[in-house]
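does this look right to u?? 2-acetamido-2-deoxy-beta-D-glucopyranose version
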Amino acid sequence: MLLLTLIVAGLITTAYAQKDPVGGFCRRFGHQTTVIDRKLYIDGGFINYSPMEIDATNYTNDFLSYLDLDHNGSRDMPQLYANLSKNSSVPSVHGGVLWGDDINKRFYLFGGEYSQQPPADSGSPLWAYDVLNNRWDLFGPPPAFVSAVSYGAGVTISERGRATTTAGG
Ligand SMILES: *[C@@H]1O[C@H](CO)[C@@H](O)[C@H](O)[C@H]1NC(C)=O
Ligand SMILES: *[C@@H]1O[C@H](CO)[C@@H](O)[C@H](O)[C@H]1NC(C)=O
Ligand SMILES: *[C@@H]1O[C@H](CO)[C@@H](O)[C@H](O)[C@H]1NC(C)=O
Ligand SMILES: *[C@@H]1O[C@H](CO)[C@@H](O)[C@H](O)[C@H]1NC(C)=O
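got this back:
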């Protein structure tokens, strides 16, 4: 009985460890990034947890994480953190862009594709992450002439409050 308990506990620990976006992450792709105040924010895309030989599933990455470019962790690489707020009402897409606004300390999540069923009433609303207050704000639907794209290239000019994204291939 004790042995069985230990084995079950071991399985639970392993399953839990596999979904750890910092300690258990193996590969990430299709995500969107931006840098604000020397922090590289990584949102969305797909993530594989190690060991990939056992589970090669491309999981939707629903964490908002960042690398601190001014503090190295192990192996002389910037330290990764996944402790920023992001709940399921904020979309987790792949192939979108983050329009970084270095002046107002926010970034906007624009475009991209859902790998799973999109939220019923989405209509591509614009969400923005507020770096200083660690929270997301909904900016509502973009103007009708703006259509969302994915796997394009985005650029932002914080000083002018302008951003654009062009369609990908
Ligand atoms: C994961 O995504 C990669 C890249 O798109 C693809 O080559 C691979 O087949 C996918 N793996 C699974 C298990 O779906
Ligand atoms: C992090 O490590 C790299 C490689 O050794 C080094 O070039 C860089 O200056 C380090 N960054 C910091 C902030 O210490
Ligand atoms: C995340 O963790 C880092 C390192 O412990 C800490 O400096 C930072 O304040 C944390 N951020 C939040 C939003 O909790
Ligand atoms: C999820 O986050 C959004 C944006 O910060 C917030 O408006 C909403 O109340 C949160 N929902 C829950 C269930 O916490």
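The chain has a mean pLDDT of 84. idk if thats expected tbh
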